[in-house]
Amino acid sequence: MKIAGDLCVYTNNTNTIEVYQKPHPMLPIEERPLFGYWDARGKGAQIHYLFNYLGVDYNQKIYKRGPMPELSKSAWLSHKDELQLDFPNLPYLVDGELKLTESKSIMKYLSKKYDQRLLGRSAEEMAKADMVSRVHDTIYLRINEPFKNGDQD
Predict the structure, then answer these.
(1) 121: closest CA among 135, 110, 111?
(2) Does residue 77 sit in helix, strand or coil?
(3) Which residue of 47, 94, 103, 121 is most buried, as measured by CB atoms within 10 A?
(4) Distance CA 12, CA 55 (A)
(5) Of the candidates 24, 37, 54, the residue with the CA atom closest to the CA atom of residue 103
């Protein structure tokens, strides 16, 4: 059974074996893109999933937050200026000379670079994909609003 490009799942009712063949050659560590995010899933998870789906090896910088309830950001704040990002924020991607922040921009870049079909094969598909992306943004904001502002109940 073929699923999601080169991800194949074989099963004999007792064992399941997944075989994933990376479509892109493994890069030396120093040439791999660098992805930075918190020690949490959040908006970084979808980028991790995309890297893995695309079969792209990457380096990861994880920023640890302090304990609750403060969740100190000092690990990131002490490092962010060294990166010389145009808009310092997490998540970020450094790929050669290119430095990006904002999860959607990073995902579009990776899709364009490694598998343009993910962005749509026609103007109509591209427009619909962009529409779904915007709806996702709206839902995400509404779901996370109580956590950002503090639930009063």
Answers:
(1) 111
(2) helix
(3) 103
(4) 26
(5) 37
Question: CA-to-CA distance for 51 and 60, rounded, in angstroms?
Answer: 11
Q: What is the pLDDT, as a whole number, of residue 86?
A: 96
7 beta partners? 3, 20
3-state per-residue secondary structure call for 2-65: EECCCEEEEECCCCEEEEECCCCCCCCHHHCCEEEEECCCHHHHHHHHHHHHHCCCCEEEEECC
Q: Is 113 exposed, middle or buried (0-12, 13-18, 19+ CB in 10 A)?
A: middle
Run of H or E residues at 148:
helix 123-149
